[in-house]
Design goal:
The protein has 221 residues and is mainly α. Helix content is 72%, strand content 7%. A three-stranded antiparallel β-sheet has the order 1-2-3, with helices on one face.
Length: 221
């Protein structure tokens, strides 16, 4: 961005040529604009007939140089005293400085407010990014759980199907071996008859284990 020197130059010299004296600098890139000026020397040149350009005239008015020239002309004509002229200028300068300071404070407050709003927006954006990252990290775990649940459900369905398929086989077995048939077979072999058969078989077995009586035993008998 361009900055400018405030200089006194010959009106017939090229714009960027040699100058007689440098009075200050002007920087329009700041808000408010930055002006560094030797006020007393500038007033002397204006009082001796130097004609400021439109831009420089605006700068001089901003700094109060044109007001001081007007007051000094009044002092020269005897319309006011030097003390009155100085007093009027100091009042103007105090008012001007107050307005400038108010503007600076307002701009500073606006800048601080904008910085705070930008900081809060960045903080919210960062928080949103963190939540998004955390959400991406949680989703796979949820998907795994859902897959496990689905697998369990499928296994349960398979078990139900197996149970349903196996149930008719049980019924078939019951039909092939009914309880009534078994009961009839038991009746064909009564308990009394079996007891007699067992008794008949056990008696000879005991007889074979007994010793035969001797001749002396027979005589005694």
């Amino acid at each position: 961005m361009a900055m400018y020197d405030v200089v006194v130059a010959d009106a017939r010299a090229p714009r960027d040529g040699r100058f007689i004296e440098k009075l200050g600098t002007y920087n329009p890139n700041t808000n408010p604009a930055s002006i560094v000026l030797n006020d007393d020397k500038t007033l002397d040149w204006v009082m001796t007939g130097a004609e400021p350009s439109d831009t420089v005239k605006a700068i001089l008015s901003y700094r109060g140089i044109m007001l001081r020239k007007h007051l000094q002309v009044g002092v020269g004509k005897g319309a006011i005293t030097q003390e009155q002229a100085d007093e009027k200028f100091e009042e103007w300068k105090a008012s001007k400085d107050s307005k400038i300071q108010t503007k600076v404070d307002s701009l500073s407050a606006t800048k601080d407010s904008a910085a705070k709003a930008r900081f809060e927006a960045e903080t919210k954006a960062n928080a949103a990014r963190i939540l998004a990252i955390q959400a991406k990290q949680v989703v796979p775990e949820v998907e795994v759980v859902e897959e496990a649940v689905e697998a369990t459900v499928e296994e349960a369905k398979e078990e139900v199907v197996k149970a349903e398929v196996a149930e008719p086989a049980v019924e078939t077995v019951k039909e092939e071996a009914p309880v009534q048939v078994v009961a009839e077979e038991v009746k064909e072999a009564p308990v009394a008859e079996k007891v007699e058969e067992v008794a008949a078989e056990e008696v000879p077995a005991k007889a074979t284990t007994e010793e035969a009586p001797s001749e002396e035993d027979k005589k005694e008998a």
